[in-house]
């Protein structure tokens, strides 16, 4: 079946904006449903991992370097932490810090001995994505994804339990090294935020298998590209395939409506597309098919959150 599925941001980001008449009519007549919210849940609706875990580091490592098999991996992304009266808050990480090869050349040599003594190998095949390689089977704590910590107190989100104790100690030592490193003064002189911490997350080993119902995935986001690569859905597709299109970066309903949904509704009307699915990150979804044009009794929606 020729189908398109749009991955969309949570509806609250698009709330308060009106739909065009054609899109409002199509959504009013569509099949609607709701399921689990959040980025992880949204992606797991389209990819099945065996075993069922969420090893972001191993997946993106395979995308970045192609050598993830046979090791355990943890992301150790560069981070900016700002102290306050209550503790310290994560104010930025990864690509938001404008990290480049000069930062890697300056900072990684200072950090590598710390992690080497702990049996971990630190490297950075991409400036914004740093990795720790460990022996397979290493017991890892539950790490919190950085997007959930941004702006919050670090203490509330550090790894817990006996496995977490080691990682909390490593984080403290890394913060001391980075805080004292003169390179951050040079970054500050260029108007860049300090790289004064790391954030550990995404631990695990490469899945044995990743499958997807989609034949093609279109995205610029690294994790989704990594899942597409692992599932074999990263190649060029043809019009007669099931495609997953990532539009989570869009910030306005006007863009979603005019640039994405409206052209696909036209393809649906011409018979070039049999199904259009809208999957919102808050768990809401709409399934639009050509046969629904006969549902005259259903009212148009004023907005996606109606």
Approximately how much beta-strand content do the residues carry?
Answer: 15-25%
- The number of E-state strands comes to 13
The number of helical segments is 9
Question: Strand order, biggest sheet?
Answer: 2-13-12-1-11-10
Shape: elongated
What composes the largest sheet?
A: 6 strands, mixed
Straight-line distance between termini: 30 Å
Poorly predicted regions are none
Percentage of residues assigned to helices: 25-40%
User: Average pLDDT, to the nearest integer?
Assistant: 92
Structural class: alpha+beta
Overall structural domain count: 2
Rg computed from alpha carbons, rounded to a whole number of angstroms: 22 Å
Description:
With 306 residues, the chain is of the alpha+beta class. It has two domains: 3-52 and 211-294; 67-205, no CATH class. 32% of the residues lie in helices and 25% in strands. It is built from nine helices and 13 strands. It has helices at 21-29, 39-44, 56-64, 101-117, 146-149, 161-180, 183-189, 222-231, 253-269; strands at 3-8, 31-34, 48-50, 72-83, 88-93, 121-126, 129-134, 197-205, 209-211, 216-218, 242-246, 275-280, 284-289. It has a six-stranded mixed sheet, with helices on both faces. Strands 4, 5, 6, 7 and 8 form a five-stranded antiparallel sheet that branches. A two-stranded antiparallel ribbon has the order 3-9. The longest helix has 20 residues, at 161-180.
């Amino acid at each position: 079946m020729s189908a398109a599925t749009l991955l969309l941001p949570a509806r609250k980001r698009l709330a308060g904006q009106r739909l065009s008449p054609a899109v409002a009519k199509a959504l009013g007549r569509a099949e609607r449903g709701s399921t689990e919210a959040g980025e992880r849940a949204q992606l797991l609706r389209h990819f099945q991992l065996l075993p069922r875990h969420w090893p972001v580091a191993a997946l993106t490592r395979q995308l970045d370097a192609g050598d993830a098999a046979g090791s355990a991996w943890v992301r150790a992304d560069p981070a900016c932490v700002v102290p306050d009266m209550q503790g310290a808050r994560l104010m930025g990480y990864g690509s938001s810090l404008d990290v480049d090869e000069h930062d890697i050349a300056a900072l990684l040599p200072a950090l590598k001995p710390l992690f080497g003594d702990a049996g971990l190998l630190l490297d950075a095949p991409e400036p914004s994505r740093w990795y720790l390689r460990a022996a397979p089977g290493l017991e890892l704590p539950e790490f919190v994804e950085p997007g959930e910590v941004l702006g919050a107190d670090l203490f509330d989100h550090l790894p817990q339990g006996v496995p977490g104790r080691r990682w909390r100690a490593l984080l403290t030592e890394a913060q001391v090294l980075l805080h004292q490193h003169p390179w951050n003064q040079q970054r500050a002189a260029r108007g860049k935020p300090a790289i004064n911490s790391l954030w550990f997350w995404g631990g695990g080993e490469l899945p044995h298998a990743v499958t997807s119902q989609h034949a093609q995935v279109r995205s610029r986001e690294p994790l989704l590209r990594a899942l597409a690569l692992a599932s074999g859905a990263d190649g060029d597709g043809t019009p007669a395939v099931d495609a997953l299109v990532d539009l989570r970066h869009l910030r306005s309903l006007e863009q979603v409506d005019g640039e994405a949904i409206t052209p696909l509704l036209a393809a649906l009307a011409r018979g070039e597309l049999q199904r259009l699915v809208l999957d919102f990150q808050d768990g809401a979804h709409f399934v639009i098919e050509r046969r629904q044009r006969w549902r005259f009794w259903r009212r148009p929606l004023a907005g996606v959150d109606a």
